[in-house]
Amino acid sequence: MKKSHMEIEIKQQPQIISKIIDAYFFDNEKVIIDAPDDVDKIIMVASGSSYHCARCAAEIFGDVSNIEARAIYSSEFLLKKVIPNHALYIFISQSGETTDTLSALQKVKQLGMQTLCVTNVENSTMWKAADYRVNCLAGEEQSVASTKALTAQMLCLYLLAIKYAADKKSDISKQIKNLQVLPDVIQRSINLEGKIQTLAKFLYKYRDIVIAADGVSYALAKEACLKIKETSYINVMSHILGEFMHGHLAVLNNKKTILVYISSDELSYSAIKNLEKIKADYNPPICVIGTSTDRLNTSYNIDCNLDSDNYILKIFSNLVIIQILALKIAEKLGRDVDKPKGLRKIVTEN
Ligand code: M6R
């Protein structure tokens, strides 16, 4: 069977990750990237998968570089009457052409604030308009469902966070170790394909799938939903698990509902308590992605077996796992992942 662009692009990721590290991380010690110095606050604006990247990156900027950062959808940003001053505005876009993100960039430029774009398309309209530019070097992405470009964006923003941490003389030795092993982590996640396919065979029959997560992983739950919807047209819902307990869990009364929990950390005490309560009250099948657990009665448990406290490597690994999961569910349903009905690769006005 001919491989889809989506599958080919997912599998190119270890090489792309190495290429980005070689391009921006010099002599195994210094990030050199086109960005301003002395940044106190970062606001990231993006749509779709690029927004999910921004949400993860906001946590990473806070944790790695101690910089307050937040993510906002491009369309919502355009509705804002007041926007913060004295911030670096980062626009993330695979294509560099998405109308809402481009309009947001133009709005910020008119207000005279610093703009940086992270894009996969050099010389795109956003590239030309921004003050600073980072090429995410993923190579042309043909699949409508973004995979390699998203992982590449994540890495560029992680590198930027490392640059700001180093500028502040923070200890970046742990981050350097992460960069050294990242291509291998991505390859190991791809190697889980067989296990992920087994999970896909179990999931594809469900028409109601709840994907829950807490903290930084919530952006991954949103990304998993988007990827599965785009490629399989199944109605998948994403929830913050802690919030899911406040009424939303009533959907589990529908016995055809399955719950997938994504974690980029060890399972927290409250996550275990919530999942145990869900099991006791509704008894849905529960699948856990990203961490191994024997505390819960899970139907499936997929984990790349990374250091349990290294949430950044786990984010990258989980990203790849959910991409393969979406691909395999779509293949089981006989969908043409490269031509999802009614979708275009770039969302513009025309
Ligand atoms: O080119 P952009 O990153 O600006 O595109 C944003 C979204 O349209 C895009 O991520 C879309 O959601 C993808 N098809 C997701 O796979």
What do you see in this structure?
- The chain has 350 residues and is α/β, with parallel strands linked by helices.
- The chain has two domains: 5-173, Glucose-6-phosphate isomerase like protein, domain 1 (Rossmann fold, 3-Layer(aba) Sandwich); 193-332, 3-Layer(aba) Sandwich (Rossmann fold), CATH 3.40.50.10490.
- The protein is built from 13 helices and twelve strands.
- The chain has helices spanning 5-11, 13-24, 48-65, 74-77, 99-110, 125-129, 148-167, 173-190, 193-203, 218-232, 241-244, 269-282, 311-332; strands at residues 25-26, 30-31, 41-46, 68-73, 88-93, 115-119, 132-135, 208-213, 235-240, 257-262, 286-289, 300-302.
- A five-stranded parallel β-sheet has the order 4-3-5-6-7, sandwiched between helices. The chain has a five-stranded parallel β-sheet with strand order 9-8-10-11-12. A two-stranded antiparallel sheet has the order 1-2.
- Helix 2 runs antiparallel to helix 8 (173-190).
- The protein binds 5-amino-5-deoxy-1-O-phosphono-D-mannitol.
- 5-amino-5-deoxy-1-O-phosphono-D-mannitol binds next to helix 3 and helix 10.
